[in-house]
Amino acid sequence: MRYLLASLAAALALAAPSMAAAQDARTLAAQARALVERKDAPEAFRMLEPYEQRFSGEVDFDYWFGVAALESGHLDRAVIAFERVLVRNPGFDSARLELARAYLRMGALDVASQEFDRLAARNPTPEGRKVIDEYRAQIERLRRRQRIATYGYVEAGFGRDTNLSSTTNDFPGAILVSFGLPNIVPTGNSIRREDNFVTANAGGDVSYMLAPDRVLFAAANFRWRGYREFDDYDYYFGDFLGGYRAQAKGLLWTASILAQTFRQDGAFVDALGTDRITNDRDAFGAIFEVRREIDAATQLAFGAQFTGFRYPTNSGQDTRQWLVSGAIDMKPAALDGTSLGLRFFYSHDEAQNPLNPFTTTTASRRNFGIRAIGQTDPAAQTSWVAALGWSRRVDDDSFARATLVETGKDDLFETFVRASYRVSQSWSIQPYFSWIYNRSNIALYAFHKSEVGLMFRYEVR
Description:
Strand order of the largest sheet: 1-2-3-4-5-6-7-8-9-10-11-12-13-14
CATH superfamily of the largest domain: monomeric porin ompg
Number of domains: 2
Number of helices: 9
CATH topology of the largest domain: Porin
CATH class of the largest domain: Mainly Beta
CATH architecture of the largest domain: Beta Barrel
Largest sheet: 14 strands, antiparallel, barrel
Structural class: alpha+beta
Radius of gyration: 34 Å
Strand content: 35-45%
Mean pLDDT: 90
Number of strands: 14
Low-confidence stretches: 3-17
């Protein structure tokens, strides 16, 4: 009997602190409940947070700590607290409802839906069933909204173009060495011009998620530019791209179609018996690309493209172009916030008509080149994009562009730099600079030009 009484006393002595702790946890939980009911969840969270480690596992404490965390915006802490409650008491439906609400607010729609399904399986009351159905309907609305993503922008700006028609510096001299014709006076687009301009652009894109690994997308852009003095060079450009993207077996496949239109009159030349030739151009084509992720920082891509180019007033320039390309995109760990890309391409343009009715010579040609692109975000409001490219053009037909040069060869060098300073979430200011130099063994086609501008951009997401 003495041994039994001693054991009982020891058990009561050990249980006393535990019972006291449980009482303290219930007291804190009651105080937190009162604060939450008075719409002061932040104060309830601040009161309970210092005791979380001490009273973790006490069902009442964890439940009201979770409610206070949820109502004050600490969603991750709320999830952990409700999960502790359900480990101790899987039938605590109020805790499961709050857990589902926390997942819903976090955007974890699949997990939230699973928790609401578990609640629905427990034969809730009609009132409870109504609440669950309302949350399920909200999840479906959010899923539909997540399936559709949209983006749009408008921008306006101004700048200066140093060579509107990409004309050589010495036209008479170029004609002499290319064709052997002396004393030719430049006219029309052969006259080098520079001018200030204003511009306005707009565009957007939309994507629809058929499934997590399948997406339909479409994008369209429109650009207009007006020159101050030489309005014959005003132009507009529109393009459309639409397609399908799917991911399977570690590969990202994209198939799309494109359409483009460019309209520009160019300088007028009064030539007897001929229609005016403009710079108008239309293009239609198809693109196929496959992309593979090598590691978290590197992707490889391979693509093929077929495009038909049509010049409404100059059919001698109509071509069908085949293009193949390869690319590598990297995000070096040593350059945090920086993306680098390198693209290689080869194309062949097959002319559809002779350059003019008096010859069989065509504008068929081969092109190949490389382009490097870098983007960095050195600050939250500032970003930079820079590109550097080189490409070579080789004519297929002998004496296609000059009577004194058998095979025309051009090397085109391009540079582009743009900065973006974000004034607000929607507005940004974007100064930019570009420079192009075409080095050709046909002097008539050698030129350089630069452009500098400032754009004001507004984005909607």
